[in-house]
Amino acid sequence: MLNLEILIRLKWRYLNRLKLTITRNAYILERVGHANMRTTLEIYKQVSNTTKEKLIQETDSWIF
């Protein structure tokens, strides 16, 4: 049972770091901003999709 608790804590830490990364990326995009809103939106979508893919790959590898 102890190993499961440790595993859960490590996963929560990872998810919290990932949430912080997403927040930072959104902040950077807001700060950088382009005159063309479409460019900003395309960058945001790319960053969001990459982050989502990382999260899915990581959680798929977890074994309970």
Can you walk me through this structure?
The protein is mainly alpha-helical. It has one domain. It has two helices and no strands. α1 packs antiparallel against α2. The chain is elongated and about 50 Å long.
Task: Specify the number of helices.
Answer: 2
**What summary fits the major beta sheet?**
none
Helix content: over 70%
Element-by-element helix/strand order: HH
Strand content: under 5%
By DSSP, the count of extended strands is 0
C-alpha Rg (nearest Å): 16 Å
The low-confidence runs, each spanning 5 or more residues with pLDDT under 50, are none
Helix and strand content put the structural class at: mainly alpha
What is the residue-mean pLDDT, rounded to a whole number?
72
Number of domains: 1
Q: What is the CA–CA distance across the termini?
A: 11 Å
C-alpha geometry: elongated
